[in-house]
Amino acid sequence: MVKIATFLVVAAIAACTLFDSTTAHEDHTRRALSTDERRLFVQSAQAALTTCTKTTVSRQLQERAVVRRAEAVAKLRQEIHQRRLNSHLSTLTVTTGTNSSVLFASTTTCIVEPEVTEGPYYIKGEYIRTDMREKQTGVPMYIDVQVIDVNTCKPVTNMYVDLWHTNATGVYSGVVASTNGNSNDASNLQNTFLRGVTPTDSEGVAQMTSIFPGHYAGRTTHMHFVGNYGGTVLANKTYSGGSVAHVGQFFFEQDLITSVEKVSPYSTNTQAVTLNSADNIYKSASGNGFDPVFNYALLGSTVDQGVFVWISIAVDMTAKQSPRAVSTYTGTGSDANSTTTGTSDNAAPRVTGLSASALLLLVAFAPVLLGIL
């Protein structure tokens, strides 16, 4: 009898958690800025960016970024036995003879506005690693994010960049919901694929290996980003605590998305496709001269051989953001995922607080449970 009662309690909690998650995919959005607030934000941000681009520090930083990105692509091409330069940019038409200083330069024009959403599936406390693929299949993607402090024009060092996105068929790990793949697959709560945290180096650069994201109904293809600082690296290589200076989303050139969607397993995704032009969050984030779209270079003659993506972003390190997490990953302290290979399936329970609906349902079940006991 005790086992039956326990089962009902667990079922009640699971039902409420599932109920909350199914409604969660209406993206969380912070208070909308007034017209005057938005105008002030845009003017201040653009003025700061203009100032930064004129500094010697900024120019030298960009020159080093050109070299770093060119070397990264060359190394990746060697690894897949591609010797012929055949690169593409999201904003330029290039040829095999295009100079690397043109190909890999990018101005720091991306500041995600304060009300851009972190999305409903943000999970705190993920593994610190540089490869978050685990066993997910898809187009290999190598990410280079450079973070600049808009107030000082200098690179932001030791910012723990938290990245997450869906797998090739549009499913996030760590969440069970009717809008997130198979809602009957409770084991997905324990999954950690395509989520990872990595610190920026002395150049303000964070690099991550992943796969190109898939899509899900109602949103264009995108990647989430949270910039943390002042937290603690735990013994199991997860990140805890600290403050958040930046919350936003990155996007991809529509032509690149369309090409990837033709490749398996992306092509098996039956969810409706939303174009960039029809995505409200994309339009909000890319307005007023800001550019949250990754630049990219193909690593081979076809997209399935991999893509290198990069972006430079300016953040306000005096800002204090408060993203809402659907849960927190606790880890086991002994079986942390590899920070190099990213192939481990080890996972530990995620901890979530009971919602009001969960408590109400437990109260409703109380007489039955007491009778059984």
Automatic annotation (TrEMBL):
<feature type="signal peptide">
    <location>
        <begin position="1"/>
        <end position="24"/>
    </location>
</feature>
<dbReference type="GO" id="GO:0008199">
    <property type="term" value="F:ferric iron binding"/>
</dbReference>
<keyword id="KW-0732">Signal</keyword>
<dbReference type="InterPro" id="IPR000627">
    <property type="entry name" value="Intradiol_dOase_C"/>
</dbReference>
<dbReference type="GO" id="GO:0016702">
    <property type="term" value="F:oxidoreductase activity, acting on single donors with incorporation of molecular oxygen, incorporation of two atoms of oxygen"/>
</dbReference>
<feature type="domain" description="Intradiol ring-cleavage dioxygenases">
    <location>
        <begin position="119"/>
        <end position="220"/>
    </location>
</feature>
<dbReference type="InterPro" id="IPR015889">
    <property type="entry name" value="Intradiol_dOase_core"/>
</dbReference>
<feature type="region of interest" description="Disordered">
    <location>
        <begin position="326"/>
        <end position="347"/>
    </location>
</feature>
<protein>
    <recommendedName>
        <fullName>Intradiol ring-cleavage dioxygenases domain-containing protein</fullName>
    </recommendedName>
</protein>
<feature type="compositionally biased region" description="Polar residues">
    <location>
        <begin position="326"/>
        <end position="346"/>
    </location>
</feature>
<dbReference type="Pfam" id="PF00775">
    <property type="entry name" value="Dioxygenase_C"/>
</dbReference>
